[in-house]
Specification:
Layout: H1 7-71
């Protein structure tokens, strides 16, 4: 551990801190780059999930209409 009363030691500590910060900055840029590359993939998966959910809801709606028609002698509900 560096002691603050020695100028040379203090300078060495500052240099080592700057090296760590520079390395962390480079690592952060790499992580940001990877996330930027993965963003379209994540967005496509999310849209696929929305499509699947919509298709499932449309299927359920169709099944409920068929069940209604079966219960009420093939007669559609008429809006007044």
């Amino acid at each position: 551990m560096c002691r603050s009363d020695h100028l040379l030691c203090l300078t060495a500590c500052c240099v080592s801190i700057l090296r760590v910060r520079r390395r962390r900055g480079a690592e952060l840029l790499i992580v940001i780059g990877i996330v930027a590359l993965l963003f379209p993939v994540i967005q496509n998966a999310r849209e696929g999930g929305w499509r699947t959910r919509c298709l499932a809801q449309m299927h359920q709606l169709g099944q409920s209409v068929l069940a209604y028609l079966a219960d009420f002698n093939e007669t559609y509900l008429v809006a007044a």
